[in-house]
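Q: How would the structure tokens look for this protein?
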Amino acid sequence: MPLAAEGAVSAALGGYSRDYLVSGLRAINPAQRLRLRFSGRGVEIAAGRARVGLRGVAYGRGAALGAAGPARMSVHNNSVKYRFRRFTEWFENGPQGLEQGFDVAAPPSVGRESLTFALTLTGGTSARLRRGALLLTGEGSSLRYGGLIATDADGHLLHSWLQLVGDRLLIRVDDRGARYPLRIDPFVQRSELSATRGASGEEFGESVAVSGRTLVV
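A: Here is the predicted structure in token form.
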């Protein structure tokens, strides 16, 4: 499935299944084996005993990056929305994972650097960037934050990337020449071990052994 279509398809499938509903600001994701808890500060995602929080959205450019301010929170079916003054942050729970998105109506009025959203990571997981995605590892489980897509009002794909600075995850978008509004949406998924060039029937994983931090398949 094309990466750009994954979010819409996953959200639609999640909306048709009660398994992905958000109830009492909590939800599960059976396909990815995730447990979700939303609050006014953001979302906490649990995979096994590992937990990570995505909190405290900041927005802007360069040195003008600042807190987004208070938000109006709403829940409908398998989605949660946080409406800030300048943009809307949203989450869609579906089989492909928890999709996070930002709908930005207009560009920041200050600065010339790339458009940036900053999230504070909580939960004590080990975080590192690999091949354009953020890998979060802790308590025997791993999460992958990736699949970042940014498009403008004409459907043009914009250059976007992730950066990790201490406990802050930065989502950056080159919006030069872009026509607003913009949509920016990465995914949070369970990170799984798979063959580099996996093929059906090759029995990858039939025999495994673990010694310390080394896994042999």
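The first helix runs from residue 3 to 16.

The mean pLDDT is 88.

Upvote if useful.
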